[in-house]
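Model the whole thing, not chain by chain.
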Amino acid sequence: MLAGDEEALTTLYRRRQGSVYRFALQMSGSPALAEDVTQEVFMVLMRDGGNFDPARGSLNSFLLGVARNHVLRRLERDRFYVPMDDDSENEAAANGFSATSPFKRDGPLDDVSRAEMIESVRKAVLSLPARYREVVVLCDLQEISYAEAAGVLGCAVGTVRSRLHRGRALLIEKLRPAREEDSTEADLKSARCFA
Amino acid sequence: MNCEEFQTIVGDLAREQIMEVRERTKALVHGASCVDCAQTLADERSLSVGLRSLADRMKSLEARPRVEAQLLAAYRNRIDFKPALVKSHRWLYWVGAAAAVLLVVFGVVAMRGRVASPPQEAREIVKPVESPKAPSVTDQSASLFAPRDTPPRTFSNPKPRRMTTGKAPSQSTVPVVAAASNNNEIATDFFPVGDVSALNLQDGGQLVRVELPRSALARFGLPVNMERANQRVKADVLFSADGLARAIRFVQ
Protein backbone atom coordinates (compact mmCIF):
# COMPACT_ATOMS: atom_id res chain seq x y z
CA MET A 1 0.00 0.00 0.00
CA LEU A 2 2.79 2.40 0.92
CA ALA A 3 4.46 1.53 -2.35
CA GLY A 4 1.45 2.78 -4.26
CA ASP A 5 -0.66 -0.35 -4.55
CA GLU A 6 -4.21 0.96 -4.63
CA GLU A 7 -5.64 -2.53 -4.53
CA ALA A 8 -3.89 -3.16 -1.24
CA LEU A 9 -5.35 0.00 0.23
CA THR A 10 -8.81 -0.96 -0.91
CA THR A 11 -8.52 -4.40 0.60
CA LEU A 12 -7.15 -3.06 3.84
CA TYR A 13 -9.81 -0.37 4.05
CA ARG A 14 -12.67 -2.76 3.44
CA ARG A 15 -11.34 -5.15 6.00
CA ARG A 16 -10.70 -2.62 8.75
CA GLN A 17 -12.94 0.36 8.24
CA GLY A 18 -15.93 -1.21 9.97
CA SER A 19 -14.10 -1.58 13.25
CA VAL A 20 -12.74 1.94 13.09
CA TYR A 21 -16.08 3.42 12.08
CA ARG A 22 -18.00 1.62 14.81
CA PHE A 23 -15.49 2.62 17.44
CA ALA A 24 -15.77 6.27 16.43
CA LEU A 25 -19.55 6.01 16.28
CA GLN A 26 -19.81 4.35 19.67
CA MET A 27 -17.51 6.95 21.16
CA SER A 28 -19.21 9.96 19.63
CA GLY A 29 -22.74 8.94 18.71
CA SER A 30 -22.35 10.93 15.50
CA PRO A 31 -22.24 9.09 12.16
CA ALA A 32 -20.81 12.15 10.43
CA LEU A 33 -17.98 12.44 12.91
CA ALA A 34 -17.38 8.70 12.71
CA GLU A 35 -17.02 8.91 8.95
CA ASP A 36 -14.66 11.83 9.19
CA VAL A 37 -12.56 9.99 11.73
CA THR A 38 -12.53 6.84 9.61
CA GLN A 39 -11.27 8.80 6.66
CA GLU A 40 -8.67 10.58 8.75
CA VAL A 41 -7.42 7.31 10.23
CA PHE A 42 -6.75 5.84 6.81
CA MET A 43 -5.21 9.08 5.62
CA VAL A 44 -2.82 8.81 8.53
CA LEU A 45 -2.11 5.24 7.54
CA MET A 46 -1.35 6.36 3.99
CA ARG A 47 0.88 9.18 5.18
CA ASP A 48 2.60 7.69 8.20
CA GLY A 49 2.06 4.01 7.66
CA GLY A 50 5.78 3.50 7.96
CA ASN A 51 5.48 4.29 11.66
CA PHE A 52 3.43 1.17 12.27
CA ASP A 53 5.50 -1.41 14.09
CA PRO A 54 3.95 -4.89 14.19
CA ALA A 55 6.10 -5.73 17.18
CA ARG A 56 4.28 -3.13 19.25
CA GLY A 57 0.78 -4.32 18.53
CA SER A 58 -1.67 -5.38 15.90
CA LEU A 59 -2.77 -3.23 13.01
CA ASN A 60 -6.25 -3.11 14.53
CA SER A 61 -4.79 -1.66 17.73
CA PHE A 62 -2.84 0.88 15.72
CA LEU A 63 -5.88 1.98 13.77
CA LEU A 64 -8.07 2.14 16.85
CA GLY A 65 -5.39 4.13 18.67
CA VAL A 66 -5.30 6.67 15.86
CA ALA A 67 -9.10 6.72 15.77
CA ARG A 68 -9.24 7.28 19.50
CA ASN A 69 -6.93 10.27 19.27
CA HIS A 70 -8.97 11.80 16.48
CA VAL A 71 -12.26 11.18 18.23
CA LEU A 72 -11.10 12.74 21.47
CA ARG A 73 -9.71 15.71 19.58
CA ARG A 74 -12.96 16.21 17.70
CA LEU A 75 -15.07 15.80 20.82
CA GLU A 76 -12.91 18.31 22.63
CA ARG A 77 -13.23 20.73 19.72
CA ASP A 78 -16.96 20.22 19.29
CA ARG A 79 -17.98 20.21 22.91
CA PHE A 80 -19.21 23.79 22.72
CA TYR A 81 -21.50 23.05 19.81
CA VAL A 82 -25.01 21.73 20.24
CA PRO A 83 -25.88 19.10 17.65
CA MET A 84 -28.95 19.70 15.53
CA ASP A 85 -31.22 16.76 16.22
CA ASP A 86 -32.86 16.69 12.82
CA ASP A 87 -29.63 16.42 10.90
CA SER A 88 -28.05 13.91 13.20
CA GLU A 89 -31.19 11.81 13.15
CA ASN A 90 -31.25 11.89 9.38
CA GLU A 91 -27.61 10.91 9.18
CA ALA A 92 -28.14 8.17 11.71
CA ALA A 93 -31.08 6.87 9.74
CA ALA A 94 -29.02 6.96 6.58
CA ASN A 95 -26.42 4.83 8.33
CA GLY A 96 -29.02 2.54 9.76
CA PHE A 97 -27.99 3.58 13.25
CA SER A 98 -31.19 4.52 14.94
CA ALA A 99 -32.87 3.22 18.02
CA THR A 100 -36.14 2.65 16.35
CA SER A 101 -35.57 2.15 12.65
CA PRO A 102 -33.93 -1.26 12.77
CA PHE A 103 -36.56 -2.64 15.07
CA LYS A 104 -39.43 -1.22 13.10
CA ARG A 105 -38.29 -3.42 10.31
CA ASP A 106 -38.29 -6.42 12.64
CA GLY A 107 -41.92 -6.00 13.38
CA PRO A 108 -42.71 -7.88 16.60
CA LEU A 109 -43.92 -5.62 19.38
CA ASP A 110 -41.88 -7.35 22.04
CA ASP A 111 -38.76 -6.18 20.29
CA VAL A 112 -39.70 -2.59 21.04
CA SER A 113 -38.78 -2.99 24.68
CA ARG A 114 -35.49 -4.50 23.60
CA ALA A 115 -34.91 -1.58 21.29
CA GLU A 116 -35.63 0.81 24.10
CA MET A 117 -33.23 -1.06 26.31
CA ILE A 118 -30.51 -0.90 23.67
CA GLU A 119 -31.15 2.78 23.13
CA SER A 120 -30.92 3.49 26.84
CA VAL A 121 -27.66 1.55 26.99
CA ARG A 122 -26.33 3.50 24.02
CA LYS A 123 -27.20 6.79 25.64
CA ALA A 124 -25.72 5.68 28.94
CA VAL A 125 -22.47 4.73 27.21
CA LEU A 126 -22.32 8.08 25.45
CA SER A 127 -22.87 9.88 28.76
CA LEU A 128 -19.85 8.25 30.39
CA PRO A 129 -16.68 10.26 30.86
CA ALA A 130 -14.35 9.65 27.94
CA ARG A 131 -11.80 7.64 29.87
CA TYR A 132 -14.43 5.15 30.98
CA ARG A 133 -16.38 5.26 27.74
CA GLU A 134 -13.40 4.28 25.61
CA VAL A 135 -12.70 1.25 27.78
CA VAL A 136 -16.32 0.11 27.73
CA VAL A 137 -16.46 0.60 23.98
CA LEU A 138 -13.25 -1.30 23.39
CA CYS A 139 -13.81 -4.17 25.81
CA ASP A 140 -17.59 -4.59 25.74
CA LEU A 141 -18.67 -3.30 22.35
CA GLN A 142 -15.61 -3.99 20.24
CA GLU A 143 -14.93 -7.08 22.35
CA ILE A 144 -11.17 -6.87 22.28
CA SER A 145 -8.95 -8.23 25.02
CA TYR A 146 -7.66 -6.25 27.98
CA ALA A 147 -4.14 -6.41 26.58
CA GLU A 148 -5.18 -5.11 23.20
CA ALA A 149 -7.23 -2.36 24.78
CA ALA A 150 -4.20 -1.42 26.85
CA GLY A 151 -2.21 -1.19 23.62
CA VAL A 152 -4.81 1.07 22.04
CA LEU A 153 -5.02 3.35 25.06
CA GLY A 154 -1.33 3.26 25.86
CA CYS A 155 -1.83 2.25 29.47
CA ALA A 156 -1.41 -0.79 31.68
CA VAL A 157 -3.76 -3.75 31.65
CA GLY A 158 -4.57 -3.10 35.28
CA THR A 159 -5.69 0.41 34.36
CA VAL A 160 -7.97 -1.01 31.71
CA ARG A 161 -9.49 -3.43 34.19
CA SER A 162 -10.07 -0.81 36.86
CA ARG A 163 -11.54 1.68 34.38
CA LEU A 164 -13.79 -0.97 32.96
CA HIS A 165 -14.98 -1.90 36.43
CA ARG A 166 -15.69 1.72 37.23
CA GLY A 167 -17.29 2.38 33.85
CA ARG A 168 -19.64 -0.55 34.18
CA ALA A 169 -20.58 0.51 37.69
CA LEU A 170 -21.44 3.96 36.34
CA LEU A 171 -23.50 2.41 33.57
CA ILE A 172 -25.45 0.32 36.06
CA GLU A 173 -26.13 3.45 38.10
CA LYS A 174 -27.32 5.32 35.02
CA LEU A 175 -29.52 2.48 33.81
CA ARG A 176 -31.01 1.60 37.18
CA PRO A 177 -33.61 4.43 37.34
CA ALA A 178 -34.77 3.63 33.85
CA ARG A 179 -35.21 0.02 34.73
CA GLU A 180 -37.04 0.84 37.93
CA GLU A 181 -39.33 3.22 36.03
CA ASP A 182 -39.96 0.55 33.45
CA SER A 183 -40.87 -1.97 36.10
CA THR A 184 -43.14 0.54 37.81
CA GLU A 185 -44.91 1.27 34.56
CA ALA A 186 -45.29 -2.42 33.90
CA ASP A 187 -46.85 -2.91 37.31
CA LEU A 188 -49.27 -0.06 36.71
CA LYS A 189 -50.31 -1.41 33.36
CA SER A 190 -50.94 -4.85 34.71
CA ALA A 191 -52.92 -3.38 37.61
CA ARG A 192 -55.12 -1.55 35.15
CA CYS A 193 -55.65 -4.74 33.26
CA PHE A 194 -56.75 -6.55 36.35
CA ALA A 195 -58.96 -3.67 37.43
CA MET B 1 -14.79 -15.82 48.99
CA ASN B 2 -15.91 -12.60 50.60
CA CYS B 3 -17.83 -9.70 49.08
CA GLU B 4 -14.72 -7.66 48.37
CA GLU B 5 -13.10 -10.46 46.39
CA PHE B 6 -16.37 -11.06 44.63
CA GLN B 7 -16.51 -7.44 43.51
CA THR B 8 -13.12 -7.73 41.85
CA ILE B 9 -14.22 -10.54 39.55
CA VAL B 10 -17.92 -9.91 39.16
CA GLY B 11 -17.30 -8.02 35.93
CA ASP B 12 -15.36 -10.88 34.39
CA LEU B 13 -17.98 -13.27 35.65
CA ALA B 14 -20.81 -11.32 34.05
CA ARG B 15 -18.85 -10.83 30.83
CA GLU B 16 -18.10 -14.53 30.76
CA GLN B 17 -14.40 -13.98 30.57
CA ILE B 18 -12.01 -16.88 30.87
CA MET B 19 -11.14 -17.56 34.50
CA GLU B 20 -10.19 -20.45 36.69
CA VAL B 21 -12.98 -22.91 37.26
CA ARG B 22 -12.30 -23.00 40.98
CA GLU B 23 -12.49 -19.24 41.30
CA ARG B 24 -15.62 -19.09 39.22
CA THR B 25 -17.30 -21.73 41.33
CA LYS B 26 -16.40 -19.89 44.52
CA ALA B 27 -17.81 -16.65 43.11
CA LEU B 28 -21.05 -18.30 42.07
CA VAL B 29 -21.40 -19.92 45.47
CA HIS B 30 -20.85 -16.59 47.16
CA GLY B 31 -23.29 -14.90 44.80
CA ALA B 32 -25.91 -17.46 45.70
CA SER B 33 -25.43 -16.88 49.41
CA CYS B 34 -25.04 -13.08 49.50
CA VAL B 35 -28.04 -11.00 48.52
CA ASP B 36 -26.08 -7.86 47.67
CA CYS B 37 -23.53 -9.70 45.60
CA ALA B 38 -26.29 -11.62 43.87
CA GLN B 39 -27.91 -8.31 42.95
CA THR B 40 -24.59 -6.96 41.73
CA LEU B 41 -24.08 -10.02 39.57
CA ALA B 42 -27.58 -9.70 38.20
CA ASP B 43 -27.00 -6.04 37.36
CA GLU B 44 -23.70 -6.82 35.69
CA ARG B 45 -25.27 -9.58 33.66
CA SER B 46 -28.12 -7.33 32.59
CA LEU B 47 -25.61 -4.72 31.55
CA SER B 48 -23.61 -7.27 29.62
CA VAL B 49 -26.74 -8.37 27.83
CA GLY B 50 -27.56 -4.78 26.96
CA LEU B 51 -24.05 -4.03 25.77
CA ARG B 52 -23.90 -7.20 23.74
CA SER B 53 -27.21 -6.37 22.14
CA LEU B 54 -25.94 -2.92 21.28
CA ALA B 55 -22.75 -4.39 19.85
CA ASP B 56 -24.72 -6.90 17.81
CA ARG B 57 -27.01 -4.20 16.54
CA MET B 58 -24.06 -2.09 15.41
CA LYS B 59 -21.98 -4.92 14.05
CA SER B 60 -23.19 -4.36 10.53
CA LEU B 61 -22.58 -0.62 10.52
CA GLU B 62 -19.91 0.69 8.20
CA ALA B 63 -18.88 3.97 6.72
CA ARG B 64 -20.69 4.98 3.58
CA PRO B 65 -19.09 4.16 0.21
CA ARG B 66 -18.36 7.81 -0.42
CA VAL B 67 -15.71 7.68 2.33
CA GLU B 68 -13.90 4.95 0.43
CA ALA B 69 -14.21 6.92 -2.79
CA GLN B 70 -12.81 10.04 -1.18
CA LEU B 71 -10.00 8.09 0.37
CA LEU B 72 -9.03 6.47 -2.89
CA ALA B 73 -9.16 9.83 -4.64
CA ALA B 74 -6.85 11.25 -2.01
CA TYR B 75 -4.59 8.24 -2.40
CA ARG B 76 -4.36 8.74 -6.16
CA ASN B 77 -3.67 12.42 -5.78
CA ARG B 78 -1.02 11.66 -3.25
CA ILE B 79 0.68 9.26 -5.62
CA ASP B 80 0.48 11.77 -8.45
CA PHE B 81 1.88 14.58 -6.42
CA LYS B 82 4.45 12.55 -4.59
CA PRO B 83 7.38 13.21 -7.01
CA ALA B 84 6.62 16.92 -7.02
CA LEU B 85 6.49 17.00 -3.26
CA VAL B 86 9.77 15.17 -2.99
CA LYS B 87 11.31 17.53 -5.50
CA SER B 88 10.15 20.61 -3.63
CA HIS B 89 11.43 19.17 -0.40
CA ARG B 90 14.80 18.55 -1.97
CA TRP B 91 14.86 22.12 -3.19
CA LEU B 92 14.19 23.31 0.34
CA TYR B 93 16.93 21.11 1.68
CA TRP B 94 19.43 22.57 -0.78
CA VAL B 95 18.40 26.10 0.10
CA GLY B 96 18.77 25.31 3.76
CA ALA B 97 22.18 23.76 3.21
CA ALA B 98 23.36 26.74 1.17
CA ALA B 99 22.11 29.12 3.84
CA ALA B 100 23.94 27.17 6.50
CA VAL B 101 27.19 27.24 4.47
CA LEU B 102 26.86 30.97 3.87
CA LEU B 103 26.23 31.52 7.55
CA VAL B 104 29.37 29.63 8.46
CA VAL B 105 31.44 31.50 5.86
CA PHE B 106 30.17 34.87 7.04
CA GLY B 107 30.85 33.88 10.60
CA VAL B 108 34.43 32.89 9.83
CA VAL B 109 35.05 36.06 7.82
CA ALA B 110 33.60 38.20 10.56
CA MET B 111 35.71 36.47 13.18
CA ARG B 112 38.86 36.93 11.11
CA GLY B 113 38.04 40.56 10.44
CA ARG B 114 37.54 41.19 14.10
CA VAL B 115 40.81 39.51 15.01
CA ALA B 116 42.75 41.28 12.26
CA SER B 117 41.43 44.78 12.92
CA PRO B 118 39.93 45.26 16.32
CA PRO B 119 38.26 48.55 17.04
CA GLN B 120 40.81 51.22 17.69
CA GLU B 121 39.27 52.17 20.97
CA ALA B 122 39.55 48.64 22.24
CA ARG B 123 42.94 47.83 20.88
CA GLU B 124 45.36 47.02 23.58
CA ILE B 125 48.97 46.41 22.78
CA VAL B 126 50.81 45.06 25.70
CA LYS B 127 54.47 45.49 25.42
CA PRO B 128 56.93 44.50 28.05
CA VAL B 129 58.99 47.52 28.89
CA GLU B 130 61.87 47.87 31.17
CA SER B 131 60.40 49.87 33.97
CA PRO B 132 62.56 51.83 36.31
CA LYS B 133 61.34 53.10 39.59
CA ALA B 134 59.80 56.04 37.95
CA PRO B 135 59.43 56.85 34.35
CA SER B 136 61.29 59.77 33.08
CA VAL B 137 60.57 62.07 30.34
CA THR B 138 63.63 62.92 28.39
CA ASP B 139 63.58 66.10 26.50
CA GLN B 140 60.26 66.84 27.96
CA SER B 141 59.64 69.94 26.02
CA ALA B 142 60.40 68.26 22.72
CA SER B 143 58.85 64.96 23.30
CA LEU B 144 55.97 65.86 25.48
CA PHE B 145 53.54 65.28 22.73
CA ALA B 146 55.31 62.90 20.52
CA PRO B 147 53.48 61.49 17.56
CA ARG B 148 51.58 58.31 18.31
CA ASP B 149 53.32 56.18 15.72
CA THR B 150 56.67 56.74 17.27
CA PRO B 151 57.93 53.70 19.11
CA PRO B 152 56.90 53.57 22.72
CA ARG B 153 59.40 54.99 25.03
CA THR B 154 61.13 53.05 27.69
CA PHE B 155 61.23 54.11 31.27
CA SER B 156 64.97 54.06 31.24
CA ASN B 157 65.88 57.03 33.31
CA PRO B 158 64.94 56.56 36.91
CA LYS B 159 63.92 59.90 38.03
CA PRO B 160 61.66 60.34 41.03
CA ARG B 161 58.41 61.95 40.24
CA ARG B 162 57.58 64.86 42.33
CA MET B 163 53.87 64.54 42.54
CA THR B 164 53.33 60.81 42.23
CA THR B 165 52.14 58.98 45.22
CA GLY B 166 52.93 55.51 46.41
CA LYS B 167 55.74 53.31 45.34
CA ALA B 168 57.36 53.63 42.02
CA PRO B 169 57.33 50.67 39.68
CA SER B 170 59.98 48.10 40.17
CA GLN B 171 62.59 47.12 37.66
CA SER B 172 60.55 44.28 36.38
CA THR B 173 58.81 44.51 33.11
CA VAL B 174 55.60 46.43 33.18
CA PRO B 175 52.99 46.02 30.52
CA VAL B 176 52.37 49.32 28.96
CA VAL B 177 49.25 49.90 26.98
CA ALA B 178 49.91 52.03 24.04
CA ALA B 179 47.37 54.49 22.96
CA ALA B 180 44.95 53.61 20.29
CA SER B 181 43.72 56.67 18.65
CA ASN B 182 43.88 58.66 15.50
CA ASN B 183 47.21 59.10 13.82
CA ASN B 184 47.03 62.82 14.23
CA GLU B 185 47.02 62.54 18.00
CA ILE B 186 50.21 62.78 19.88
CA ALA B 187 50.73 61.57 23.36
CA THR B 188 53.27 61.46 26.11
CA ASP B 189 54.64 58.30 27.61
CA PHE B 190 52.79 56.71 30.48
CA PHE B 191 53.47 58.04 33.90
CA PRO B 192 52.92 55.64 36.77
CA VAL B 193 50.19 56.47 39.19
CA GLY B 194 50.07 54.83 42.55
CA ASP B 195 51.40 51.35 43.14
CA VAL B 196 52.52 50.14 39.78
CA SER B 197 54.02 46.71 39.66
CA ALA B 198 54.34 43.95 37.17
CA LEU B 199 51.88 41.94 39.17
CA ASN B 200 49.26 44.63 38.87
CA LEU B 201 49.63 45.25 35.19
CA GLN B 202 50.67 41.92 33.80
CA ASP B 203 47.09 41.17 32.87
CA GLY B 204 46.83 44.41 30.94
CA GLY B 205 44.09 46.84 31.75
CA GLN B 206 41.63 49.27 30.42
CA LEU B 207 42.41 52.60 28.89
CA VAL B 208 40.00 55.40 29.63
CA ARG B 209 40.07 58.80 27.95
CA VAL B 210 39.55 61.65 30.42
CA GLU B 211 39.99 65.39 30.53
CA LEU B 212 42.00 67.03 33.24
CA PRO B 213 43.01 70.59 34.07
CA ARG B 214 46.19 71.47 32.32
CA SER B 215 47.72 72.15 35.72
CA ALA B 216 47.68 68.39 36.25
CA LEU B 217 50.67 68.22 33.89
CA ALA B 218 52.75 69.75 36.62
CA ARG B 219 52.03 66.84 38.94
CA PHE B 220 53.95 64.60 36.57
CA GLY B 221 56.81 66.98 36.07
CA LEU B 222 55.67 68.29 32.73
CA PRO B 223 55.95 71.95 31.83
CA VAL B 224 52.77 73.97 32.08
CA ASN B 225 51.99 77.16 30.30
CA MET B 226 50.44 79.13 33.11
CA GLU B 227 48.51 81.32 30.72
CA ARG B 228 46.58 78.25 29.67
CA ALA B 229 46.49 76.64 33.08
CA ASN B 230 42.72 76.81 33.22
CA GLN B 231 42.25 74.94 29.98
CA ARG B 232 41.65 71.22 29.98
CA VAL B 233 43.91 68.60 28.53
CA LYS B 234 43.06 65.12 27.37
CA ALA B 235 44.62 62.15 29.06
CA ASP B 236 44.47 58.37 28.86
CA VAL B 237 44.27 56.70 32.23
CA LEU B 238 45.27 53.07 32.44
CA PHE B 239 43.20 51.09 34.89
CA SER B 240 44.45 47.72 35.99
CA ALA B 241 42.25 44.70 36.35
CA ASP B 242 41.52 45.54 39.96
CA GLY B 243 40.01 48.84 38.88
CA LEU B 244 42.72 51.13 40.18
CA ALA B 245 44.39 53.80 38.07
CA ARG B 246 47.95 52.67 37.39
CA ALA B 247 49.30 55.01 34.75
CA ILE B 248 48.43 58.09 32.80
CA ARG B 249 49.53 59.77 29.65
CA PHE B 250 48.55 63.06 28.13
CA VAL B 251 47.22 63.38 24.64
CA GLN B 252 46.97 66.24 22.23
